[in-house]
Specification:
By secondary structure, this protein is an alpha+beta fold. The protein is built from four helices and nine strands, in the order E-E-H-E-H-H-H-E-E-E-E-E-E. It has a single domain, classed as Cysteine proteinases (Cathepsin B, Chain A). The longest helix has 10 residues. It starts with a strand and ends in a 9-residue tail after the last strand. This is Peptidase C39-like domain-containing protein.
C-alpha cells in the first residue's frame, strides 16, 4: 500500500533486468515492444503486497525473496502491517537502485521509471503502488508510457495499461511516486 511521506530528489532512467514479450492487441503497447518488466501479481487475501510486487518486477526477483528482504527491513512477518515507502527504499538499495519520494501534478512530469500511487485517497493518504515506465522515442517509434498493475482483482486486460492511465490517478490531487534510478558509486570506492 502506498502512503505519502516527505522526501525529494531527482529521478532518471533505470536499466531493468527482466524482459517479457507483449501482445500489442492486448496491451496497447507498440508492436514488437519487449517490456523489461515481468508482471508480478499480488497474493490474494494474504497481505498488502502491492509495493513488494512492484519491487519484484523492478529487480526481477521472486516475490518470496522480496518479502524476506522486507522482513529484514522491519516489515512485521505476521499480523497487520503496512509496507511504507521507507521499507521499499531500503530494499531497492540492496539491489543497486535508489528510490526518491516525490510528487508531481501530471503524468507528463513523471520520470522514466517510478512506482506511482494509484487510486490515491487524499483523506487517508493511502493508495496502492503500480509500476510506471516511460519509453523515450527512438528511430521510428514515438515515446510512450505504460503502467503494470500488480492487483490480483483486476481484469487481465488491465494488467498493463497504456491508454487509460488517468483512471488510476486521483483528480485534483498530486501524483505521489518513488522515482527509481540506478545507485551511483562514489569514485574510488568499492561496494
Amino acid at each position: 500500500m502506498a502512503t505519502k511521506t516527505k522526501t525529494a530528489a531527482a529521478a532518471k532512467t533505470v536499466a531493468p533486468n527482466a524482459a517479457v514479450d507483449s501482445d500489442s492487441t492486448v496491451t496497447g503497447l507498440p508492436a514488437g515492444f519487449v517490456s523489461p518488466f515481468k508482471r508480478v501479481e499480488m497474493q490474494p487475501n494474504i497481505r498488502v503486497d502491492d509495493g513488494l510486487c512492484c519491487l519484484a518486477m523492478l529487480t526481477n526477483q521472486p516475490l518470496d525473496t522480496i518479502m524476506q528482504a522486507a522482513f529484514r527491513h522491519g516489515l512485521a512477518p505476521h499480523g497487520p502491517a503496512w509496507c511504507y515507502a521507507s521499507h521499499l527504499q531500503s530494499i531497492l538499495r540492496e539491489y543497486g537502485l535508489n528510490a526518491e519520494e516525490k510528487e508531481c501534478p501530471t503524468i507528463d512530469a513523471l520520470p522514466d521509471v517510478a512506482l506511482i500511487t494509484a487510486e490515491y485517497n487524499p483523506a487517508t493518504q493511502y493508495g496502492r503502488w503500480v509500476l510506471w515506465h516511460h519509453v523515450r522515442a527512438a528511430a521510428k517509434v514515438k515515446s510512450f508510457h505504460y503502467v503494470i498493475d500488480p492487483a490480483y482483482w483486476i481484469d487481465p486486460s488491465r494488467h498493463i495499461v497504456t491508454t487509460d492511465i488517468q483512471r488510476l490517478i486521483t483528480p485534483k490531487s498530486p501524483i505521489y511516486y518513488l522515482g527509481i534510478t540506478p545507485k551511483t558509486m562514489t569514485k574510488g570506492k568499492s561496494k
